[in-house]
Design goal:
Elements lengths: L19 H4 L3 E9 L8 E8 L4 E6 L5 H8 L10 E8 L2 E2 L5 H4 L3 E4 L3 H4 L7 H11 L4 H14 L15 H13 L5 E5 L7 H16 L3 E5 L3 H4 L4 E6 L2 E6 L1 H4 L2 H4 L8 H9 L2 H4 L3 H9 L4 H9 L19 E9 L5 E10 L4 E6 L5 H5 L10 E6 L2 E2 L5 H4 L3 E4 L12 H11 L4 H15 L14 H13 L5 E5 L7 H16 L3 E5 L3 H7 L2 E6 L2 E6 L1 H4 L5 H5 L7 H8 L8 H13 L55
This protein binds adenosine-5'-triphosphate (ATP) and magnesium ion.
The site of magnesium ion has 6 residues, from helix 16.
């Protein structure tokens, strides 16, 4: 699969070629206003938008800007399914969607939600039957149904899951099924709300390609996203802020610093680089063009700091509880699920105290299964896990929770209290800490996550990105020695990702060990000193970001659905060696242009700045960063070298 730049073949697509009824936009929104019950502010405050057949329109904006509300209204779910006061109009073909019945809208529109568990029927025993479920209502002949299902299984790369129970799939596998379950219905207009939040990079590329194909079939496509792969693939991109349209134009135009920085957002890294190179107006998402222009320009760091504006906020974490330095040791771990799937197939990892380790790998590669052994949620079929030198075997989850904090991939698996504050108090109260300590921990966790204004809110009334933060805060409030995060940045906007990165840095600086699963390679490169790459239940690469994202490693990464972050891809194109972060790339560019020094760029952190020159990343069977199962951990980057490398500005 091609990487990075907008890879969709541009098929000329024009509306208006098929007679009058087709020349109308498939989706037309006029003067839309939408306010939820009990809310003072409008979620959508006067939006006009038309999406023609064959058009691909992306919606960007901060969390809470109104993207999901716009998606719900565009799909005809407001106010029929989702209660809200609405004004203006939404037309889907010739149908008034604000007043239409479900039957009126059948075949005209389908929506993919950001949380796959909410999409799936919950009543179908297999993925194939789940996909057939919607089609049965369309009364299609059996062989056409089968043909459609086979096609969409192939398009989404999930043929091997056809016979599986949807609710035993990994998060990303479920999300692929959720997208497939709507695409298979072939609606004229398809609306997607962050359809790639849990997908590996290859999965996100596949969805971008699929949306392009849907548009080429003259469908209208509208999707909300944070991922630049998807945003850059759109014909036009709408930027929302506080329910209003701030900009609506080609992605390279609207995802610029001029528009995004005043809203508190940063442009995607590829657009930052295009601006640095002075070609943002022409080829912002064209990596080859950006690389060529960068090679011919100078003073890259200086220009980048002008583009990025103010520095990112830092987070402080004062250790409250006394923990001895706590290493995590995994030796020969094997896990089989009932039914025989061997999800983890002999993993050995030694993680020294205070290290920040990112675990990456394709959907279904066993990441979640692996980390669920760290706090006893799952028990090994073979091998052993030790935390702080003591075997996990036989110790109950509540006891392990004194040491290991675990934040779930899906926050709804974790949250159950009526208010955010109660949610945060629950953990430290269970640890029987003194009242004053609990207060201090709760306040510190609210402060670190920025949730203080929502302390009295019911977590279920919050959006996905905030619920993820509540889940994180509820674990931070226990100040664990080892913090385990399963996809912490899912659904977060740029500032949210930066905040979580700052929390990771601060917690590690306080001596805590952090293990995080992520599909965001930029996040991994910027905030983690070590990256472990999994494929089909095994570790296939293990090293620093500079090692794992070195150009020679790209084929191994690709074999597990990953690609190096954009800075590394551009560095590789220019023969600059390994440049896993924006800071490293800019420094290498400046160095190449002038032989200058290597100061980091203001505003971005760089876990790898100051780390030794790249050595070989290890591969299975080779030397591993730890000294073996339970030997002394070697700590390939000392904990002190990471956070201290953070730029002070
Ligand atoms: N409860 C379960 N029962 C049976 N199989 C399961 C169960 N949970 C996960 N699996 C399977 O185990 C394998 C590993 O799943 P896991 O959730 O660990 O993957 P992951 O790497 O975390 O994926 P993702 O990136 O999609 O979250 C997959 O093949 C998945 O389908
Ligand atoms: Mg997972």
């Amino acid at each position: 699969m091609s990487t990075g730049s907008s890879s969709r073949d541009r098929v000329p697509r024009k509306s208006g070629s098929e007679g009058d009824s087709e020349s109308r936009p498939r989706l037309r929104i006029e003067g839309l206003r939408l306010r939820y019950p009990g809310q003072l502010a409008a979620a959508i405050d006067g939006v006009d938008l038309a999406v023609g057949s064959g058009e691909l329109v992306a919606v960007a904006g901060r969390n809470g800007a109104g993207k999901s509300s716009l998606a719900l209204a565009a799909a005809g779910l407001v106010p029929r399914v989702v209660q809200a006061a609405v004004g203006g109009s939404v037309w889907l073909g010739g149908v008034d969607a604000l007043r239409a019945s479900a039957a009126d809208l059948a075949g005209r529109v389908g929506i993919v939600f950001s949380i796959p568990a909410r999409q799936l029927s919950g009543s179908k025993p297999t993925v194939r039957e789940e996909l057939a479920f919607g089609l049965e209502n369309l009364a299609l002949p059996r062989d056409e149904m089968d043909a459609r299902i086979d096609r969409v299984l192939e398009r989404m790369g999930i043929g091997h899951l056809a016979g599986r129970d949807p609710f035993t799939l990994s998060g990303g596998e479920q999300q692929r099924v959720a997208v497939a379950s709507i695409v298979v219905m072939e609606p004229q207009t398809i609306v997607l709300d962050e359809p790639t939040a849990q997908l590996d990079p290859a999965g996100a590329q596949a969805v971008a390609a699929l949306l392009g194909e849907l548009a080429a079939e003259e469908r209208a496509v509208l999707y909300a996203e944070h991922r630049s792969t998807l945003l850059g693939a759109a014909d036009r991109c709408l930027v929302l802020d506080s329910g209003r349209v701030v900009a609506f134009d080609a992605p390279g135009q609207v995802l610029s610093s001029r528009i995004l920085v005043p809203l508190g957002l940063e442009p995607p890294t590829i657009v930052v680089l295009a601006e640095v190179a002075g070609i943002a107006d022409r080829g912002a998402f064209d990596e080859a063009a950006v690389a060529a222009a960068l090679a011919g320009s100078r003073r890259h760091r200086e220009r980048a700091s002008a583009v990025l504006g103010r520095p990112r906020p830092a987070v402080d974490w004062e250790p409250v509880r006394d923990h001895p330095p706590t290493a995590v040791e995994i030796a020969g771990l094997v896990h089989r699920y009932p039914g025989g799937i061997e999800a983890v197939r002999g993993v050995t990892l030694g993680i020294p105290p205070g290290q920040r380790v990112a675990i990456v790998g394709q959907n279904g590669s066993g990441k979640t299964t692996l980390v669920k052994h760290l706090n006893g949620l799952l028990r090994p079929d073979a091998g052993e896990v030790r935390i702080g030198g003591a075997s996990v075997g036989g110790r109950p989850v509540f006891e392990l929770a004194r040491t290991v904090g675990f934040v779930f991939q899906d926050p709804d698996d974790q949250l159950f209290n009526r208010t955010v504050e109660r949610e945060l108090r629950f953990g430290p109260a269970n640890l029987r800490l003194p009242a004053a300590t609990i207060d201090r921990l709760v306040e510190a966790a609210l402060e670190a996550t920025g949730l203080a204004p929502q302390r009295l809110a019911n977590p279920y009334d919050l959006g996905l990105s905030e619920r993820k933060l509540v889940a994180l805060a509820s674990v931070l409030a226990m100040d664990p020695a080892v913090l385990v995060l399963d996809e912490p940045t899912t659904g977060q906007d740029g500032p949210g990702v930066a905040r979580i990165g700052a929390i990771v840095d601060a917690v590690a600086a306080a001596g805590r060990t952090v293990v995080a699963i992520t599909h965001d390679m930029e996040f991994a490169a910027e905030h983690f000193e070590r990256i472990v790459v999994m494929r089909a239940g095994e570790v296939v690469l293990d090293g620093s970001p500079a090692e794992v994202f070195a150009p020679e490693r790209a084929p191994v990464l690709a074999s597990t659905g990953l690609e190096p972050p954009v800075a590394a891809r551009i560095g590789a194109r220019l023969g600059l060696g390994t440049t896993p972060t924006l800071a490293a790339l800019l420094a290498a560019l400046d160095g190449a242009a002038a032989g200058g020094d290597r100061a980091p760029v203001p505003g971005r952190t760089d876990a790898t700045a100051g780390s030794p020159p790249p050595a070989e990343a290890t591969v299975p069977g080779g030397t591993t960063p730890s000294a073996g199962p339970f030997g002394p951990p070697s700590g390939r980057s000392s904990p002190a070298s990471g956070p201290s490398a953070r730029d002070a500005s």
